Hints:
This protein is α/β, with parallel strands linked by helices. The protein is 35% helix and 22% strand.
Amino acid sequence: MTRSLRRIQDPGSRLRLSHRDGNVPGILLDLNGVTKSFDGEPAVRVDSLRALPGRTLVLIGASGSGKSTLLRLMVGLLPPDRGTVTLGSTEITPATAPRLRRRMGYVIQDGGLFPHLTARGNVVLMARHVGWRADRVESRLRELVELTRFPPDGLDRFPAQLSGGQRQRVSLMRALMLDPDLLLLDEPLGALDPLIRSDLQEDLRRIFRTLGKTVVLVTHDLGEARYFADRIVLLQEGRVAQEGTFEDLVERPKSPFVTRFVRAQRWAATDDEVTS
Length: 276
């Protein structure tokens, strides 16, 4: 099966900044033999899955394929029925999850901002909670405003006074505030109109490549997965249908389901008519 692949131009080289301890940024996230069911119905059944340090792993699949459940298992919001989820060398359990979450940034669908707090209040909430000094909080806030290209005069506005794109930038700043090793994003751009979404895609990819953190991003959009991913995991009914690069899914599908999924989003994969 042949397909013509459209190339996406990289807006800049992959820049890796030094981490606070001087090592390569990011951390290994490892899932082994993980299962999760609800009311007896299997939602996730993953034998082995790794998010590698400093790389972007994209989870993709149809609605109900287990993407968001898998992300909640990774962040420790749900315990697995069986198997282990490990961050670095520490297993994520109900006992360790609260501490380990300080090493994770989590952007949920629609941002999840607190409506009674300003943008500033949302971003700095956790830093104040863990006892950062005021000068450290303000210094980090300035860094994030510059990194995300958020308008400084918007910091004192409430979420309802911000545009959809601005709210997502606030959510991203909040997730990055504690300088986490791991960044998890659950369909962060799904509710945005195409022009705003395109701008944010460019900024997100630049941020991922600048910071070099381990990133796990959920989407249902193959074009978006292609744009961000070092590796893509396609889920089907809670199982990994195929893992690999975008080209692997398009040129070397492992099952009829993978072929159907790609063909259903052929505009993201080809310039020409799909041929078999």
